[in-house]
Design goal:
It contains 6 helices and 6 strands. It has 175 residues and is an alpha+beta fold. Strands 1, 2, 3, 4, 5 and 6 form a 6-stranded antiparallel sheet that branches. It is rod-shaped.
Length: 175
């Protein structure tokens, strides 16, 4: 008669090579891809959300008040100046407010569109459109790092980075 194998010896049996580790590795890989993919999508969505604050006004100008502003005074956050209308139905204003950025300088004239119901104006034309979408350019650059590091997708990361860099460069050159 052959003696029965003790329970402790049975527990020490070698397991099949790679089976449990492979399953946990696949689960971790899926979790990483799902989490980093979600983070990358949220970053891009946040960029679109931040850009959409200005974009509809400068892109969809039909029916909006359009004109020019000569910047006469600048504070820390805003600049002001008189508004001269270009479109019919738009009224001249003695003072409108435009955001003080590196692109707005005292003494210069800018083509603008008036935000409805306010005395705030936004730059229009190609420069205004590119400036409105600049937050998306930054989001694309940030998302490219997440895609490269977290998802390990080099080509997609380079495409995102190139798109973001092109958008920011165009905005910088147009301003």
């Amino acid at each position: 008669m052959i003696p029965a194998m003790p329970a402790a010896a049975a527990a020490r049996r070698p397991r099949r090579k790679g089976q449990p580790r492979q399953a946990s590795s696949a689960a971790l890989r899926f979790g990483r891809v799902a989490l980093m993919g979600t983070v990358a999508v949220l970053i891009v969505v946040a960029g679109v959300w931040a850009s959409w604050e200005r974009a509809p006004y400068v892109m969809l100008t039909k029916g909006r008040e359009q004109g020019t502003v000569v910047v006469t005074r600048c504070g820390e956050d805003t600049c002001t100046g008189p508004y001269t209308p270009v479109t019919t139905g738009s009224a001249a204003r003695d003072r409108v407010v435009i955001a003080h950025t590196v692109a707005v300088k005292k003494g210069r004239t800018y083509s603008v569109v008036v935000k409805p119901g306010t005395d705030e104006v936004l730059r229009s034309g190609p420069a205004g459109i590119l400036y409105a979408w600049a937050p998306l350019g930054g989001a694309l650059l940030l998302a490219s790092v997440v895609v490269a590091g977290g998802l390990r997708r080099a080509r997609a990361a380079w495409a995102l980075a190139g798109s973001g860099l092109a958008l920011l460069t165009a905005a910088f050159l147009a301003l």
